[in-house]
Amino acid sequence: MIFRSSTALYTVILVASLQAPAFADTLVLPPAPAGLGKVDTAPAPTGVVAYVDAGGTNQRGDACLATLEANAGVRLLSGFLDLWTPRSAFVDADQDAPAKDNCPAVVKSDWDGIPGSATDGKKKLPEVHDANIAYSVKVTRAQTPELDREAYLDDRRGKNVSIVDGLGPLADVWRKGARQTTTITDMPADAVKVKYDDKGNNRGVGSKENPDLGKAVDLFDAGSDNGSTEPAKRYYKYARPYRASADVRVVPQLEPAKSDKPASDGGFPSGHTAEGWRDALVMAYLVPQRYQEMVTRAALMGENRIRAGMHQTFDVLGGRVQALAVVAYNLNREKYAGLKVEAFGQAQSYLSKETANGDLNKLFVLAHASDKTKDRFADWKENKAFFEPRMTYGHRQIGKTDVAPVVPKGAEVLLETRLPYLSAEQRRVVLKTTEIASGYPIISDAEGWGRLNLFDAADGYGAFDGDVAVSMDASKGGFNAADTWKNDIEGAGKLTKQGSGSLALSGTNSFSGGVVVENGALVAQSDTAFGKGDVYLAGGKAVVEAKSLAIGGNLTVRKNAGLQLSLNGGVSVAKSVAIEGGKLVLTLADGQKPKAGDEIKLIQAGTFNGKFDEIVLEGFKLTPVYGQNGLSVRIEG
Predict the structure, then answer these.
(1) Domain extent listing, the chain
(2) Which residues form a coiled coil (predicted)?
(3) What is the CATH number of domain 51-449?
């Protein structure tokens, strides 16, 4: 039933509540929150060659170009030089070797790959190296048969076959549409003696023969263009862990896969990790409904390289950094501009058609429909707990710890489909406000690739250090229609919700610039979702799903706005409430059964003025009870 604020009915309310609530003679509305009056920005770093401009120099096979000066892939990982001086960097000085045919002697095969030998590199900060190899020893010595099997599969089968696991309920549908095949489905009994190679097609069948997901398969190939780790391996000459320590256990079934040529078998960076990350990032671009699950799967690929005994933490960190830069480079290239649009559209259309009868808005729900027994990546908290320690692998900071956040040129493309309702500059600011601190080994590159935390970035802003306006067009479907930001948002900026879509906030938020809702819905899923400032509902509606929403300033509801909250929830306002009109919609919690005579508090405040035009609780008659400090409703039947 609907309560309408007519004079006759209001008289009944006064009698029923025994005394008239004292309202101000004239309702005075507080001004809308002013915020900071500026937006935040994230300019690309200066004084450094951007990888997205130079990624084409990362060419394998040309020994003369595997140098810091000539190769963007080698240069990207130059943070490793804080820990390691490779043989190639000092052989000239030691041997006074001449150049030949304009190719420096430093790139000759002068390394035997045996740590501590006369032709090995030189360690810096030995205790960090000790921690690195200690992690490999610890992990490989704690292996179980199931973990051995997992590490074996990630080693021997196509990397794309492995990362498709991250799609969970959508994985089999994807494999069907991509026409993906593999011949490595288990760990053969004789694998301890026989090296098995995957004879499948890895990524699937491309667009020339596959109308279902062929464009998507093409984009995987494009995302890895110029993505080789060979030049960096050639330059840095860092040994595999089993050569560095006899205490590192290699999965027995992978012994036949070990190279017997150390000089051409460098461990840094990990090629398997880099490829897994490249394919996972492209998949996250194509299927952003599983974005965080895909980057978690990429992190698991890296961990499995360590569990296999084939790589160390240094190698895995380098592989991740290189992959982020390579994929961003390719997604920014004009050459692939049309392909990425076509591939994304094809992937979304095919998956929604095959699983949700073409309803794009249901695809996110179906992508998360399985529990942990069927989808190992079903738990967001577990994914986050696994992912974040592997951003640094627990290494101590060895450089400056207070360097301001930096976002590489072009990195915003990595969030293009995950946060489609934000501008490119806003996506850069999201990356800026969610990246990790500076100073960690290997990943503190000058551009900032290693500090990017894509798991957190997929959950929206980490801080409002400027005012943020979010405009979501629900008619476009997907994340344009509804999204959730789970980060704990700090800062002094203001959030303005525009457009017809729905944005939910679920973090422990402390931003102080206030909230303005102009259209659509802003959903409070935590008690501190709206921060510490004023909340001003100019249009649209605020939906309170939290048990008890705390508003740190004023609450204002204009005539064209609405508020929705659960009958067993409530809103606590530190200062004043001003209600010009609008609609209050009440809902019941699961199992809640109010009875006639119950009086339930909804809003409490320092002062309360004004009235809603209507109050609705489907199936019930209500009497609103307004007071100087709040609003309750009495159930009449």
Answers:
(1) 2-36+463-635, 51-449
(2) none
(3) 1.20.144.10
